[in-house]
Design brief:
Elements (H helix, E strand, L loop, with lengths): L12 H35 L5 H24 L7 H35 L1
Helix pairs in contact: 1-2, 1-3, 2-3
Length: about 120
């Protein structure tokens, strides 16, 4: 089934677009906040030297959730909210942080295997 709906707004079209984009930008702001939390969580693990596969998997899951959330918001972002590009960059930064953490995990595991095997 298909429906064709025609509407008129009480306020001007530009006001309606601004309200809609503001709602999307609010959602993007939440994602940006969660990206900041992601970086802090990884930094906490680095400070504690928790270079384990389970920590890596947990952080991979968190990034996957952030990306999924972003995809849901972008589906609603049909009018081009301003903060979308900022979130794309923030998610790329999260991915780089995760890659760096993964490298540390692999290095720690390799060191542990070498030390265990040498003893």
């Amino acid at each position: 089934q298909a429906f064709l709906v025609s509407t008129s707004s009480v306020i001007g079209e530009s006001d309606l677009v601004a309200l809609y984009n503001a709602a999307r930008d609010d959602e993007y702001e939440e994602i940006l906040d969660k990206c900041a939390d992601f970086h802090e969580e990884v930094a906490k693990e680095v400070r504690a030297k928790h270079f384990t596969y389970s920590e890596l998997e947990e952080n991979e899951e968190d990034l996957t959730k952030l990306r999924g959330w972003f995809e849901k918001v972008t589906v609603r972002d049909v009018l081009g909210a301003a903060r979308r590009k900022e979130v794309v960059k923030a998610l790329d930064d999260c991915a780089r942080t995760l890659e760096e953490f993964a490298a540390s995990v692999y290095e720690a595991e390799d060191t542990a295997i070498f030390q265990h095997g040498a003893g």
